[in-house]
Design a protein that fits this description.
14 helices; binds beta-D-glucopyranose; 40% helix; 16 strands; disordered N terminus; 16% strand
């Protein structure tokens, strides 16, 4: 695809999606039939605080969509909550289906292209209690859920089946660790920034990996078979492994179960979601900590915006150039909105560079539209739009206006304008 270039900005191709993303559990609030709610409220848990009302988007989604449109975006990525649609096995909530149908229609009516994720980390509590993604019929149950939600997806062409399956497989390994050592060991390890919690050091659960790939394929078959013109993909967490000299083989062996198998599984898909935030360095003995003195974010990740371009290049290499890419998540946890703009500027420039080299990128979704529940804590703020925790009032940040203006203009910065340093964002 030939992409024209003007000055220090890249003109986006016709139909390019520029939006922001959320996930149901992180913004809706009171997702009481989900396994995450159960985990948050269990007597012994590593979870610091429960999600509670989150950003109350279950009720305030029209306002959220209005804001995104007013800011200049043309797309919104959100997820449907299986636990609400099927709170007990086989019991479908018509009200929940109507709710999500209204969201799909609400997005379309506002000129926001909906990109709908069917599963974003949380599952119904009953599903997890009977073995979750380790149960022999898990893929079948997910295909059944896909059939159930078909009726509300009309008009939403781009569907993501599962979010970050590679992280889900890691979460199961974490649970196993917790079962052996106790949640408090896990909580302590997390508080100390310790290895046990780091996705870098735990191997994904292999049964879960296989089941998720099967679940994705079965769900894709259901969607494709429905004749609604759905374009189906899944979204993979790109770790952007950097091998130290001499550690190339260690890094490759390391990346294989954590990323490559999930990218390879997307080869027959209609598109693939790239999600990138930072890089992970790997030495001869395995993963390395963030280098001393490197700027970090509120999640403790190294500020490394070029991860986005590198993730896109790597995805093209593994998945194949014929699978179009949508950047379904990219962003930074920071209380310093200037750092958010600087980070995103450089991330977009690295994306523009890959597009100029021929990567078929169809959209960019910033994580996140709103400050939200970051899986156990509200402290790392990823949002373009701030949310008051008591009144739930929404306040767009300068970064929202900056990115929205780019979206409205159909341009993103290219490499020439990407030399702005990103200050430490851990505040
Ligand atoms: C997930 C989001 C999460 C974000 C920041 C991604 O792994 O899909 O749910 O909030 O990263 O940690």
């Amino acid at each position: 695809m030939a992409v024209p270039k003007t000055g220090t900005e890249l003109v986006l191709p016709e139909g390019f999606l520029m939006g922001a993303a959320t996930s149901a559990h992180q913004v809706e609030g009171n997702n009481v039939a989900s396994d995450w709610w159960a985990l948050e409220n269990a007597p012994e848990t590593f979870v610091e605080v429960p999600s509670g009302d989150a950003a109350d988007s279950y009720h305030r989604w029209p306002q959220d969509m209005d804001l995104l449109r007013e800011l200049g975006f043309n797309a919104y990525r959100f997820s449907i909550e299986w636990a609400r649609v099927e709170p007990e096995p086989g019991r479908v909530s018509r009200a929940a289906l109507a709710h999500y149908r209204a969201m799909v229609e609400g997005a379309l009516a506002r000129g926001l292209t909906p990109v709908v994720t069917l599963h974003h980390f949380s599952s119904p509590r009953w599903f997890s209690e009977r073995g979750g993604w380790r149960a022999p019929d898990a893929a079948e149950l997910f295909a059944g859920y896909t059939s159930t939600v078909l009726e509300i997806l009309g008009g939403a062409t781009r569907i993501a089946t599962l979010n970050e399956p590679n992280m889900v497989a890691l979460m199961y390994a974490l649970r196993r660790y917790a079962a052996e050592h106790g949640w408090s060991a896990l909580a302590q390890s997390r508080a100390e920034g310790g290895a046990a919690f780091s996705p870098a050091l735990i191997s994904p659960d292999e049964v879960v990996t296989r089941t998720l790939i099967e679940a994705h394929q079965r769900s894709r078959d259901v969607l494709r078979g429905a004749g609604g013109g759905f374009e189906v993909g899944w979204t993979v967490a790109n770790q952007v492994y950097h091998a130290e000299p001499g550690a190339e083989e260690v890094a490759a062996a390391y990346a294989r179960p954590r990323e490559e198998v999930f990218l390879e599984a997307a080869r027959g898909d209609d598109w693939i979601g790239v999600q990138a935030y930072t890089r992970h360095r790997v030495g001869p003995d395995g993963p390395l900590p963030v280098p001393d003195g490197a700027p970090t974010t509120l999640t403790g990740w190294e500020v490394y915006p070029e991860a986005l371009g590198e993730a896109v290049a790597h995805t093209v290499e593994v998945t194949g150039a014929d699978v179009p890419i949508v950047v379904t998540e990219n962003g930074i946890a920071t209380g310093d909105d200037g750092a958010r703009i600087a980070y995103t500027h450089r991330a977009l420039a690295s994306l523009a560079e890959q597009m100029r080299r021929g990567a078929d990128v169809r959209g960019y979704f910033h994580w996140s539209a709103l400050d939200n529940y970051e899986w156990g804590t509200f402290r790392p703020t990823f949002g373009l739009i701030g949310v008051d925790p008591v009144t739930f009032a929404r306040t767009p940040k300068p970064s929202a206006r900056w990115l929205g203006a780019l979206a409205a203009a159909g341009r993103i910065p290219d490499a020439a304008g990407a030399d702005r340093p990103v200050p430490s964002a851990a505040r």
